[in-house]
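Re: How this chain folds, sequence and tokenised backbone to follow
Notation: Tokens come from a learned vocabulary of local backbone shapes, not from coordinates.
Start of record: The labelled sequence and token lines come straight after this line.
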Amino acid sequence: MDRIGNWLEIIPPSMREPVLFAVPFFLLLLTIEWTAARKLEHLEDRPTSGAYMARDAWASISMGLVSVATMGAWKFLALLGYAALYAYVAPWHLSATKWYTWVIALVGVDVLFYFYHRTAHRVRLIWATHQAHHSSRYFNFATALRQKWNNSGEIVVWTPLPLLGIPPWMVFSGFSVSLIYQFWIHTERIGRLPRPIEFVFNTPSHHRVHHGIDKLYIDKNYGGILIVWDRMFGSFQPEVFRPHYGLTKQVTTFNVWKLQTHEYAAIARDVKRADRWRDRIGYAFGPPGWKPAAQRLEPAQVS
């Protein structure tokens, strides 16, 4: 364990949580967008795209502030495991001073995020951790801060990277870069960008689709920084019309604890009332809205 302890001491402090340095810029852009939305509503005397609702926005901001602390706790636990994998299991160690190590780290984080994100939308127990981010009926910079408090799924998904010899602090830095990038794509103020950018990168247009609850848009555009994974694996959908946002079964609370936990409670209720183990497993690990065969003729509801 001395080897791990010595390794922890050399992690560059400035790289431990880059998101903290971005928070002032997040809040500045959020304030500008919110002010512009209010001004346009006043001029046009009607709600505008990208509009804000104060209680909804404050709920998002509150969840984002708490997530900074919870994410730090999850990363600390992960760091212990990653350090052991990197120090004792990885067949080689890639140098942080080489450009290709950064490419592998950033691309690796991005492709693993895609598969985790896709799984989070198709496995209800993981969806329970992620659904809070989708619970707002608004799509703006405040929505970007509406982050989950349970990062355990991502912690597991990142384990191949230290096994490949990528220093654990670079894994965390790569995810922080992804998180910072994804802030600016939560807006209706930016339309389509030039075609080459739209083809390669995740953009506001692509991410509006991802947050849409319209039938055409559900379970599409899972990419973090790059949209090429969606194009490669068949989950891409271009924006055809302005989406409707939120959950297919909308929540009616601004209580941040309930927003984070209501799906866990719904899973517990469904599992408790199920008569067969097959159905209990289906309620927990099937896709959101899963029902036993006898009930599938009824309209599906996704919590």
In short: Residues 7-15, 42-49 have pLDDT under 50 and may be disordered. Residues 58 and 142 are 8 Å apart (CA to CA).
